[in-house]
Specification:
This protein has 254 residues and is α/β, with parallel strands linked by helices. It is built from 11 helices and 8 strands. It has one domain (8-253): Aldolase class I (TIM Barrel), CATH 3.20.20. Strand 7, helix 9 and strand 8 (214-219) form a beta-alpha-beta unit. The chain has an 8-stranded parallel beta barrel, surrounded by 7 helices. Bound molecules: 1-deoxy-D-xylulose-5-phosphate (DXP) and ligand LD2JLWAY. The ligand NCC(=O)COP(=O)(O)O binds next to strand 8 and helix 10.
């Protein structure tokens, strides 16, 4: 019997909160978006509580924990404040991401190799609390080695540069894809669970979904934007179908 190579889809609801926060009220509600994601077949919900609370706010995390049964992937900066929140909220997973106040979105991956001493106690403390720890890193073998050294069981490879390369040239797009493929195989070979995400769209998802060692994709911004035109349920289902198409083609070849 062929065992299907599982590829989970986590839906990031941050940018529902971005729209809400432009008016300061309660609409649109990221928790309602998470409920639509559940019914559209998502495998998990991702939310990034930025230190400046520009989109997701603390009560969103509390409500996601209380109202959504799917695993929550809590994205956070490597700060004491965020570790305390994670320990209180007990999400299924924490993904430690780099943050800069002035950035428009998460630029580049976490410099795990350069911050081993800072990250080590957090990874240990979160892991000891039963929270799966992931590091959001660039597709770079040095950062993967650092994740292994830290004992983080998961890495999420930043696909932002890869996604931007589609507008540059076919050669650049293939170069960035190959970089992610190499890092994914390298990390999986060292025993890490490999995830990927950031900036993925209908046009960029299939080559990433076709990398068989990748276990989870986290996608948000494009799906929320596309939902303006087709609705969130349909945007998620279309993404899921593209992922399945790519993964099934790989499974059929193996
Ligand atoms: C780490 C990451 O990739 C996500 O948090 C996502 O991109 C949404 O958040 P921002 O747009 O605030 O970076
Ligand atoms: N970690 C990546 C993520 O959660 C979603 O990123 P994006 O699709 O909103 O760019």
């Amino acid at each position: 019997m062929t065992v299907r190579n599982e590829l989970r889809l986590g839906i990031n609801v941050d940018h529902v909160a971005t729209i809400r926060n432009t008016r300061g009220g309660v609409h649109p509600d990221p928790v309602r978006a998470a409920k639509v994601a559940v019914s559209a077949g998502a495998d998990g919900i991702t939310a990034h509580l930025r230190e400046d609370r520009r989109h997701i706010i603390d009560s969103d995390i509390e409500r996601l924990r209380a109202e959504i049964a799917l695993p929550l992937n809590f994205e956070m900066a490597a700060t004491r404040e965020m570790v305390e929140i994670a320990l209180r909220q007990r999400p299924h997973a924490v993904c430690i991401v780099p943050e800069r106040r002035e950035e428009r979105t998460t630029e580049g991956g976490l410099d795990a190799a350069g911050q081993l001493a800072h990250l080590q106690p957090m990874v240990l403390e979160l892991g000891a609390a039963g929270i799966r720890v992931s590091l959001f890193i660039a597709a770079d073998r040095r950062q993967i080695d650092a994740a292994v050294a830290l004992g983080a069981p998961v890495v999420e490879l930043h696909t932002g540069t890869y996604c931007e390369a589609i507008d540059e040239s076919p050669e650049a797009f293939e170069r960035e894809r190959a970089r992610i493929e190499d890092a994914a195989h390298y990390g999986a070979g060292l025993g890490l669970e490999i995830h990927a995400g950031h900036g993925l769209t209908y046009d960029t998802v299939k080559p990433i979904a076709a990398i068989p060692v990748i276990r989870e994709l986290n996608i948000g911004h494009f799906l929320i934007g596309e939902a303006v035109f087709v609705g969130l349920d349909e945007s998620i289902r279309t993404m899921r179908a593209l992922m399945d198409e790519a993964r099934n083609a790989v499974d059929a070849r193996s």
